[in-house]
Write a structure and sequence with these properties.
Blueprint lengths: L1 E4 L5 H13 L3 E6 L4 E6 L8 H4 L4 E5 L19 E2 L5 E2 L5 E5 L6 H13 L4 E3 L17 H13 L3 E5 L6 H7 L2 E4 L7 H8 L5 E4 L6 H13 L5 E5 L17 H8 L4 E3 L1 H5 L2 H13 L4 E5 L17 H17 L6
Parallel strand pairs: 7-8, 7-14, 8-9, 9-10, 10-11, 11-12, 12-13, 13-14
Antiparallel strand pairs: 1-3, 1-4, 2-3, 5-6
Helix pairs in contact: 3-4, 6-7, 10-11
The protein binds phosphoenolpyruvate (PEP) and manganese (II) ion (MN).
The site of phosphoenolpyruvate has 9 residues, from loops.
Length: 339
């Protein structure tokens, strides 16, 4: 349940409600909105009568949330959550933010060439995998910590933030020490020990939807991170598995407005993995922006034919500039700006 405080409740009243929540064995989570403060009651509160909170001075009303997620919900956090990133980028809050770079970090030359291109196109967040969860154990698995070091150095050189994937709970502190955003991949969306570990750090997390996961399961996975103490979570629609074989996955365009309606979390679209084909990336990216996405995460490679992973879906530099030009046009047409 969430406890909605009166508009002019005093700090003492807020403190008293928080104490009451904790006396009853729950954790409290405070959200200070533009209009009023809302207290999330964390734990299994089903047996508790809302009246125990309604009688406390300063409380306006108590709302039971029947959905299995609370902190992620619009009821708990009516305003959009905004994640501020080093280098001036942000996720959420109206702008369209593009995160771009190679699927995997392969070498300093490859990463530097890509960063130069995406930075020249106005991108402020460099993506690149150092730990790659590949379908085949024989495929390139990433450079590991060496890849993280390269990402940090190249991004710093261009004044960019870094997003990179973490695949095990043990690696969370290491990846968090180099990256500005931790990426949790589709194959790990329901890895609950990884989600808990990501909840314990103070870096933003981009959580990608599992290939066969529902929107509800994605939000509940995000709730794991939020409920473990990290309130900087963004969700990513990256395509799901359907009967369609013409593309690698099928982008669930519906998920964008559905997630924006149910949750306050920023929503990012990945047109690269959703389609698996470079020629389809731009139209699907444009559709994502038109549908209300807060950001796009796009794979770019200076020479896709030589890429060690996801070459067929990686944009060449000219394709990326072309996509960015049209992303700006669509953003403007729907009253947004590329940030
Ligand atoms: C990636 O971003 O390179 C990646 C592996 O994505 P996903 O987890 O969505 O497959
Ligand atoms: Mn990839």
């Amino acid at each position: 349940m969430v406890i909605v405080m009166r508009a002019h409740a005093t700090p003492e009243e807020l403190e008293a409600v928080k104490r009451r929540v904790e006396e009853l064995g729950f954790r409290s989570h405070i959200s200070t909105g533009s209009e009023r403060t809302i207290i999330g009651v964390i734990g299994d509160e089903r047996p508790v009568d809302p009246e125990v909170f309604e009688v406390v001075p300063g409380v306006e009303r108590v709302v039971r949330i029947l959905k299995p997620f609370r902190l992620a919900s619009r009821e708990f956090h009516p305003d959009d959550r905004v994640i501020e990133l080093p280098g001036g980028a942000r996720l959420g809050g109206g702008a369209v933010t593009v995160l771009a770079g190679p699927c995997a970090v392969e070498s300093r030359e490859q990463l530097e060439a890509t960063a130069e291109v995406v930075s020249a196109a106005g991108v402020k967040v460099l993506r690149g995998g150092a730990f790659k969860p590949r379908t085949s154990p024989y495929s390139f698995q990433g450079l590991g910590e060496k890849g993280l070091i390269l990402l940090r150095e190249v991004a710093d050189h261009h004044g960019m933030a870094v997003i990179t994937e973490v695949v095990t709970p043990e690696d969370v502190p290491l990846v968090a020490s180099y990256a500005d955003i931790l990426q949790i991949g589709a194959r790990n969306m329901a890895n609950y020990s990884l989600l808990q570990a990501a909840g314990a750090v103070s870096k933003p997390v981009l959580l990608k939807r599992g290939l066969g996961s529902t929107i509800d399961e994605l939000i509940q996975a995000g709730e794991y991170i939020l409920s473990n103490g990290n309130d900087q979570v963004a969700l990513c629609e990256r395509g799901i598995r359907t009967f369609e074989t013409a593309t690698r996955f099928t982008l669930d365009i519906n998920a964008i407005p559905v997630l924006k309606g149910l949750t306050s979390l920023p929503v990012v679209v990945d047109p690269s993995h959703a389609t698996g084909q470079a020629t389809l990336v731009k139209p699907v990216a444009l559709a994502g922006v038109a549908a209300g996405a807060d950001g796009l995460i796009v794979e770019v490679h200076p020479n896709p034919a030589a890429a060690l992973s996801d070459g067929p879906q990686s944009l060449t530099p000219p394709q990326f500039f072309d996509m960015m030009r049209d992303v700006r046009k669509v953003a403007e047409a729907v009253g947004r700006q590329v940030g």
